Amino acid sequence: MPHCRFAGGEDTAHLEEIKDMTEKNKLWHKNVSVHEEIDRFTVGMDRQLDLSLAKYDVLGSLAHIRMLESIDLLEPVELETLSVALSKIYNEIETGNFAIEEGVEDVHSQVELMLTNKLGDIGKKIHSGRSRNDQVLLDLKLFMRAEVFEIAELIQKLFDRLIALSDRHKDVLLPGYTHLQVAMPSSFGLWFGAYAESLADDLAILKSAYDIVNRNPLGSAAGYGSSFPLNRQMTTDLLGFESMNYNVVYAQMGRGKAEKILANSMATIAETIGKFAMDICLYMGQNHGFISFPDEYTTGSSIMPHKKNPDVFELIRARSNKIKALPNEIAMITANLPSGYHRDLQMIKENFMPAFVNLKECLHMTWFMLQKIRVKNDILKDEKYKYLFSVEIVNQLVLEGMPFRDAYVEVGRRIEKGDFAIPDHLDHTHEGSLGNLCNKEIERRFRSIRKGFETQQEEIGLKYSMLLKTGNSLPA
């Protein structure tokens, strides 16, 4: 594995010397060497997963050292030196030149090792007033915020496509089903629009989860605070949090809870796109034939030349179900834990962090496939859909003065005798119906929720830029 070093930094031989001292690369190292099997088992997948947390660890450290300087635990010149070094590490991460070395336990240890290797005693001061506990809590919160913003952007893209398809095909009729039986007339306008409005609700739930995530745990240390006069409001402001987790015990208890709340919101999104994927799989089948895709958007069979399989949507359906299981997986890990930190919490990362990639790919692929969806016209002209219009005739008789129950019996009699006739037009005008989709109203609600994300994302981006600009503008 390549070494992580600053441009123009320490020579390779020196880094090898540091690397050999594996026990001293642990933030909790004292004088006892841990057996290698214990080390392997307890570190688990942290070294791989922590690469996704690396830039957030640096951003958190940039805020933390500014706070340390403000309470006289760092000299101004030390702040400048550390800020420059951390900004260089951030640039290495962004350009893909960062790795967690063999013998280094996690990203927190790697960053501190690099600073100490480069700066000596100044690098050792960075951990004052914090623990790995609140450090990883902070990294996860910053990671979750960034992932939520990306998910919100992908939801918007899919929402816009669904609304556009709803408007384009608003007059193309489609069978509606209850109990998987032909029920009443629907339309592609209603079908696409239904999933668009579902995404609006999903976005609202995601925003609620974001509000729980967007609270600063830094300064809670191991879960019981610090005897240093930390300025927790300062780091809260520097990192763009809405507020802090005020109670230090609750800040630590919040690990697992925040992930589960966010996982629940991800599960609602997965529920929407998974159900949509199931509809697609049904509607593509020869027994329905309502929609189709170009050959290059489908897959074939190894022995049946006629097959055009909806593999993309089948995988979206399966992946969605996997995401829907995530909240329960987290709940099972945290189910019997008392307050305080426990190593069990480390296990949450292994299922939780990869789920974001999974969900984002599902959202992207649903959007991607819909650019080439083909909708069949005149579906309801098929004789088998004749009785979809039974309610239309019942309602017509009611409008002519017949009591509803009598009209119901009369239409049933006509169907039994075989003299049921299809109406010559449909007259649906109420809000949200075939003739009045209310897409503008759905869009208006969605945009209102989305605006909250965009404002937050812009503000946080400016906060991060200020932290990094401080480091990059200081003398090397």
What form results from the Cα inertia axes? elongated
> What strand order characterises the main sheet?
1-2
CATH fold label of the largest domain: Fumarase C, Chain A, domain 2
User: For this structure, what is the CATH class of the largest domain?
Assistant: Mainly Alpha
Major beta sheet, specifics? 2 strands, antiparallel
State the CATH superfamily name of the largest domain.
Answer: Fumarase/aspartase (Central domain)
Low-confidence parts lasting 5 or more residues at pLDDT below 50?
1-23
> Would you tell me the overall average pLDDT?
88
Query: Which percent range fits the helix content?
Result: 55-70%
What is the gist of this entry?
The protein has helices at residues 12-20, 36-43, 46-49, 54-70, 76-94, 107-119, 121-124, 132-168, 188-213, 232-238, 248-253, 257-284, 311-334, 348-370, 390-399, 404-417, 439-473, and strands at residues 173-178, 181-187, 215-216, 243-244, 291-292, 374-375. With 476 residues, the chain is mostly helical.
Care to describe what's here?
- The protein has 476 residues and is mainly alpha-helical.
- The protein folds into 2 domains: 117 residues, Fumarase C, Chain B, domain 1, CATH 1.10.275; 259 residues, Fumarase C, Chain A, domain 2.
- It has 17 helices and 6 strands.
- The strands form 3 sheets. Strands 1-2 form a two-stranded antiparallel ribbon. It has a two-stranded parallel ribbon with strand order 3-4.
- The two termini are 28 Å apart.
- The N terminus is likely disordered.
